[in-house]
Amino acid sequence: MSTMQAVAKMQAGPGFELIREEIPPPGPREVLVKVTATSICGTDVHIYNWDKWSQGRIKPPLIVGHEFTGEIVEVGAQVRANEPQVGDYVSAESHIVCGVCQQCKLGQGHVCPNTRIIGVDTNGCYAEYITIPVENAWKNPPQMAPQVASLQENFGNAVHTVSAVDMRGKTVLITGCGPAGLMSIPVARAFGAEIIVTTDLSPYRLDLARKVGADLALNPREDDVARRAQDAVRGKSFDVLLEMSGAPAALIQGLHLLKPGGEASLLGLAPDTLDNFDMNNLVIMKGITLHGIAGRRLWETWYQMRALLAAKVVDLTPIITHEFPLSRWHEAVETMASGESGKIVMYPGE
Amino acid sequence: MSTMQAVAKMQAGPGFELIREEIPPPGPREVLVKVTATSICGTDVHIYNWDKWSQGRIKPPLIVGHEFTGEIVEVGAQVRANEPQVGDYVSAESHIVCGVCQQCKLGQGHVCPNTRIIGVDTNGCYAEYITIPVENAWKNPPQMAPQVASLQENFGNAVHTVSAVDMRGKTVLITGCGPAGLMSIPVARAFGAEIIVTTDLSPYRLDLARKVGADLALNPREDDVARRAQDAVRGKSFDVLLEMSGAPAALIQGLHLLKPGGEASLLGLAPDTLDNFDMNNLVIMKGITLHGIAGRRLWETWYQMRALLAAKVVDLTPIITHEFPLSRWHEAVETMASGESGKIVMYPGE
Amino acid sequence: MSTMQAVAKMQAGPGFELIREEIPPPGPREVLVKVTATSICGTDVHIYNWDKWSQGRIKPPLIVGHEFTGEIVEVGAQVRANEPQVGDYVSAESHIVCGVCQQCKLGQGHVCPNTRIIGVDTNGCYAEYITIPVENAWKNPPQMAPQVASLQENFGNAVHTVSAVDMRGKTVLITGCGPAGLMSIPVARAFGAEIIVTTDLSPYRLDLARKVGADLALNPREDDVARRAQDAVRGKSFDVLLEMSGAPAALIQGLHLLKPGGEASLLGLAPDTLDNFDMNNLVIMKGITLHGIAGRRLWETWYQMRALLAAKVVDLTPIITHEFPLSRWHEAVETMASGESGKIVMYPGE
Amino acid sequence: MSTMQAVAKMQAGPGFELIREEIPPPGPREVLVKVTATSICGTDVHIYNWDKWSQGRIKPPLIVGHEFTGEIVEVGAQVRANEPQVGDYVSAESHIVCGVCQQCKLGQGHVCPNTRIIGVDTNGCYAEYITIPVENAWKNPPQMAPQVASLQENFGNAVHTVSAVDMRGKTVLITGCGPAGLMSIPVARAFGAEIIVTTDLSPYRLDLARKVGADLALNPREDDVARRAQDAVRGKSFDVLLEMSGAPAALIQGLHLLKPGGEASLLGLAPDTLDNFDMNNLVIMKGITLHGIAGRRLWETWYQMRALLAAKVVDLTPIITHEFPLSRWHEAVETMASGESGKIVMYPGE
Predict the structure, then answer these.
(1) How would CATH label the architecture of A3-151+316-347?
(2) What confidence tier does B1 reach under pLDDT thresholds 50, 70, 90?
């Protein structure tokens, strides 16, 4: 078998195509992974829709997708014996970093300015096989379910967002219950949060939030969020805000509900720049610290993920709401785009 | 009723006595608390036994005891309206700190050099009533059980010990399963520990350790601790050591089992100075950080305790193994001294 | 002598008046301070001009001013022996905090929501005498010059802003060279900064910036700030931004010049809310941490100030550009309002 | 020229020999460096003397030495374009780490359990040429003097020791004024220390300590260290202890002089295990934190070194007390062994 099935952006414009392609040989410092599961990220939907960001970044033809797991079936000539080997069950860090810049050398590889992203800048994982640099392969424990192993790239965003702030004994407001927001709920709990209140506009997602452990899940369209959220935390403000929605209104309300001296982690990207943002009263005079979150800490976040999953204190399976064979990618992507889903996993070769 | 029952050290030498004493009036910045529950600490046993430390520190006559909870029944003339008031359900921080030294002004009141300790330097809580500085009264939520509220002073030692180190995703070795060691188990879990292994010489205490959540509880007298502990953490060394026993052998073995770059919190006090302590290989060349732990952080630890108990992620009731009326103090203290107990709670006025 | 000279806001509207007033007796927990020097803050100019903020906050009649030093001449009945006493040479923390809220109990008294500010909410220090809570009196070493001792309240804003970020070996961009910006320059150096670049629109202030140690002082009206600032740091972005101006353009340019993974401390208050603020690209995707800064850390900042001044690694005297007797307050305030000054000190009783 | 001069341990036993050896070709991921300066470390003296540690670790024949600087003259086939290249002026991190263990992946490469050390486990730099892994080559700014560039490996120990503790505004006791102790003095100052007191038994070294900036340099053989040290810090205890001597008496006295809640960094290795070490009173009950220090943080320490030297806030030249051509290695090593020196630099090819 020398060719494989893959889902690719073949030309500038909306849509993907199912193609057949040569199985790529690994470069000297790469490994070839047989993909067993791949999951869909919001970014993939942006590329599918060919939004403004995609138009500036994506160079077709490109196999898309960056969340996956699989088995190493071949390693390049310069892969060393103490690195991942054939037969290893791996997931991938999707950020290919340079390793030599100041960020990489100071433990901030997650913001390496030379980062290339799998499925964005290099061929991705909506395919039967993918080659990745050996440094990007992360060995999973054998008992981890493939659909969970695939999710880790995105789960890592949630873990990074939560871990940027001390959760021990804290009251936490999480604005936004998309996949990353949902996953942050059990992580916040596992790292010590006392009370977790979440918000979202989607009743479907609020139900999922309750299912994975939110103490209270509120809908700004229906609920008096400020009053009910504060009632849930003894009439006080929140110790911590995790902004996972990108909605400017959520960010601003979240900062209003944050206590003086509180901390916020911001993962959600707004559709545009912010207007009428009251930095004086929301941040400076309240002595707030804001953490902008990008990617995953290399490799603290991956170690934390492994522990959270191994200890079974985080169960991601309720967040996986749909599963498809890769050949039904179209249905999978459209479901993701609908907003009526948690994470969606696809299986190549089915 | 102007007199009260109390348990006191009446003269230099072993033993306590049950006495009747005037109910003390609160000073201008004090509150009078009607004690509803009080618990026994190892320190109380030392005072009872009149050990060397007690002989140097305790000035009889002295009502003993420093762990308790109760209701404020009177406040001094200078207690302000925003401070605890009559009717409040409180526990006490047992360290009366000066508030003006460098330690107090820099958030290190737990090591204030001017500290006086309730039941050690001032009359204690093995009594129907006690006066304490209003600053030492901590308001409990009404739903907290008195036997749990009483334990907080000691629980705070455990919380402080655990919180000195980042537990998130860590493997943790806890040497010593006395009350503080036992209480540290669910706290380590609540703050994110992945795997918790404990050691103790007492089968009774090892059973309690398993009951409150240890993944593995080993007895150095019977088990090959090094091998089995490392097996439990995938053949690696531990990320964190919590030394709660005071046994030199436990400290040394714990440091041997700690990974290069690991951290240890030390709460247990050794019976004597250490001999043959290999600082080079156990600490310096491994790049270990050791945290000496004293008291409770004022007031981070108390906020963390409140959250841990309110969120029900820590349940202290399995650790409370015996309850007595205060009049049966002798039986209670002897049980504590036997080592065959967890925490012991006494109730005045029964 | 039972009356004193003071400068006060006597009615709602612009301006101050020189008045004679009874010397106030200290309350039970207060001290009476004979003011030897007082300095002018931008806030005082706002109150003088009766801007919108002042109209909402200030209740005339009110003696103004909150930066000062002096000698304690009387203490209240409940001041304890281990607290400041008659004869002590003190400066004042201007924030009167409650001491009992969560912020105060967790080492965040600088954002106590119950804060009252001297000269804003209570009578101030543009006077021969002032009473303050004993907790707000900070003892100065005897050799400290009064004009320097008076400045500490404002100096503390600079020290707090700098100390919120690790300066060790860092390249630092400071936007804004008003008094706090100027004072932050030697502090950043003293705490380990490698290269310090500053910006301001005033040539007068840029000269002062060079005088107190900026490696490069740029004027956005005349210089290509981005190019020259980056040239000064080996063509890289900055490790740290200290925003001391409140100018939105400065904040935005500063964040552009900040490296991915960098940190910013924000002290300057903008004249209004921000429009077109690109949180995605300036903060989130770059993994930036922003620290809003209010007041001074109680009491870390004061200890740091004392050390910086005692070690003579910071010399504030070049920043003191004008001195007046208090009776010439009008000239002093107008000079401050002109922007052509550093700090201005006034001496009562001259 | 295909051979080079080198100083080597040729057989098990005391001494070194001057040899001629083939210039080694770089491996695929190595660079060949023409050594311009090399400096002597205490470890080299241990190897020379063939002490117990050396007997267990060193496998002759071995070219010794691990502190050096030079120019890259050849690179291996797999060195990438964004890595150090021919013509670059470099120093070397002496720890060759594995890059794949948990320590390496979590920013703790300085305690990688797979570390091999240049000049200890692989051929060293007392030679005209040396090959090192490209990852170990650190590019120096062109204006750095070679004798200073060579020192960085050891300077890094000092920087690491100091940087493990917050120095800002702190009073610091440094026990031991060997090279690392001496270098830590200006670093502590540059990172914000207020008052620095040092101790050593050698008048020669105490003079050097004063020269590089100690406020007070005391000799335990002659001075009442406790009294004079505390007098120097206003009669208080010290905020920070840096133990650089390895002398048990210095460690113990240093911990006695450390304030409750203080921190200590330990770099000095004792000649043997410690007896009669009072962990209870020196560490636990005082709430002390001890940091064991090994190697240099990869790569924080190197960035900090570069900044300290570039900003000229640390001048290492007074600490370089002797310079020799490499051919006079015997005299150089004997001078180092005498204790009557600071750092000693040797120049190959002279």
Answers:
(1) Alpha-Beta Complex (3.90)
(2) low
Burial of C201 (0-12, 13-18, 19+ CB in 10 A): middle
> Hey, of B284, B288, B297, B300, which one would you mutate to test binding to chain D, going by the most D CBs within 10 A of its CB?
B284
DSSP codes joined into one string, B86-122 = TT-EEEE-SEE--SSSHHHHTT-GGG-TT-EEBTTTB
Q: Could you give phi then psi for residue D72, rounded to 5 degrees? A: -75, 130
Hey, what are C12's tokens? Answer: 């709602």
Handedness of CA B100, B103, B107, B110 (dihedral sign): negative
- The answer to whether C133 touches C96, Cβ cutoff 8 Å, is yes
The torsion of the CA quartet A259, A263, A265, A269, rounded to 10 degrees, works out to 50
Residue D296 Ramachandran class (φ > 0 left, ψ -120 to 50 alpha, else beta): beta
b/e map D253-284, b = 16+ CB within 10 Å: bbbebbbbbbbbbbbbbbeebbeebbbbebbb
Residues 6+ apart with CB under 8 A from C342: C179, C182, C205, C208, C318, C319, C320, C321, C322
CATH of segment(s) B164-292: 3.40.50.720
Inter-chain CB proximity B194 and A307 less than 8 Å = yes
The yes-or-no answer to whether C3-151+316-347 and C164-292 have a common fold is: no
Tell me if residue B330 is catalytic: no
Looking at residue D349, its pLDDT comes to: 84
Compute CA distances D29 → A105, A246, D93, D133, D135, whole Å: 18, 44, 15, 6, 8
Q: Do B169 and A194 touch (CB under 8 A)?
A: no
SS3 B239: strand
CA distances from D192 to C168, D170, D317 (A): 9, 7, 21
Instruction: Measure the CA–CA gap between C214 and C184, rounded to whole angstroms.
Output: 10
Q: What is the pLDDT of residues D89-135, one digit of tens each?
A: 999 999 999 999 999 999 999 999 999 999 999 999 999 999 999 99
- Residue B304's region, left for phi above 0, alpha for psi from -120 to 50, else beta, is alpha
- CB count within 10 Å of CB C261 equals 23
User: Which ipTM did the prediction report?
Assistant: 0.97
If you count residue pairs, one on A and one on B, with CB atoms under 8 Å apart, how many are there? Answer: 42
User: Comparing C-alpha atoms, which of A2, A151, A21 is closest to residue A74?
Assistant: A2
Catalytic residue, chosen from A36, A38, A43, A198, is A43
pLDDT at A314 over 80: yes
Q: Where are the domains of chain D?
A: 3-151+316-347, 164-292
Contact D280 B270 (CB under 8 A): yes
Among B91, B163, B165, CA closest to B125 = B91
Give A301's DSSP letter: H
Distance from CA of D176 to the nearest CA of A (A): 30
pLDDT of residue C339: 86
Backbone CA torsion sign across A204, A210, A214, A220? positive
Tell me the pLDDT tens digit for each residue of B154-199: 999 999 999 999 999 999 999 999 999 999 999 999 999 999 999 9
Q: How far apart are the first and last CA of chain D?
A: 16
Q: Which residues of D are catalytic?
A: 43, 46
Read off the pTM.
0.97
CB atoms within 10 A of CB B139: 15
In the predicted model, what is the mean pLDDT of chain D?
Answer: 97
Residues B124-139: tens digit of each pLDDT? 999 999 999 999 999 9
CA dihedral C170, C173, C176, C177 (to 10 degrees): 60
Backbone angles phi, psi at B92, to 5 degrees: -125, 135
- Which of the residues in chain D have pLDDT under 70? 1, 350
- Whether residue C169 is predicted with pLDDT greater than 90 in this model: the reply is yes
Q: How far apart are CA D238 and CA D195, in angstroms?
A: 9
* Residue A33 pLDDT greater than 80, yes or no: yes
**Rounded to 5 degrees, what are φ and ψ at A16?**
-125, 170
